[in-house]
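Possible race condition, two jobs.
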Amino acid sequence: MTGTDPTDPSSGFRLNIGKANGQIAVSFHAAAAGTVLTPGTRYFTLQSGAPDGSGQWVWSNVDGYVDVQGADQTVQWSGPASGTVQLFRVQVRLQQ
């Protein structure tokens, strides 16, 4: 689904997260259109999550990073670090 090669052990989807100068930096590779096994166009949505106080995580889309069409590019986002724990994930969908 993410454009990795299941026959290559070194091929995997990586969400890179770092922090510099008070900013959080997130990046990932958005693979282009599908293959014979997964034809179609890939769309990537970056989401951030934070605890809601009751032990649950609340996920929301990161503005400007919803349904980014994969074109073999590196997608990069940076923003201020919050004072609370924050997680990131990427949702991928394939449209045929």
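Job #2 (started ~2 s after job #1):
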Amino acid sequence: MGGVKQQWFSRRLFIPSPARHRYQPGTSPTIAMDGLAPGAATLTSRTFGVACAQVQATTPITRIVGAPVSVAMVAGQTANVAIVLRRPGNMQVTATLA
């Protein structure tokens, strides 16, 4: 890619039940992510309805970002990124082996 370094990272927002946490639908929490290298970056995000320590590979995702967000990280500057977390859809796939 002509010397352009691409960074991929995923920030998981572990959100407990609304009764125990301040983040609820309709709010806009801000999360600082420090120490990121300059260059091109892509942000994705998923949330879960259980405490961090309870998240397993099979834990249902409660909210997702519809599409990855591209960010140009510049040394010494803060890139402001706004995302919308939506409920995920479901799919059932039937495959016929011919």
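The chain has one domain: 6-23+35-86.
Logs attached separately.
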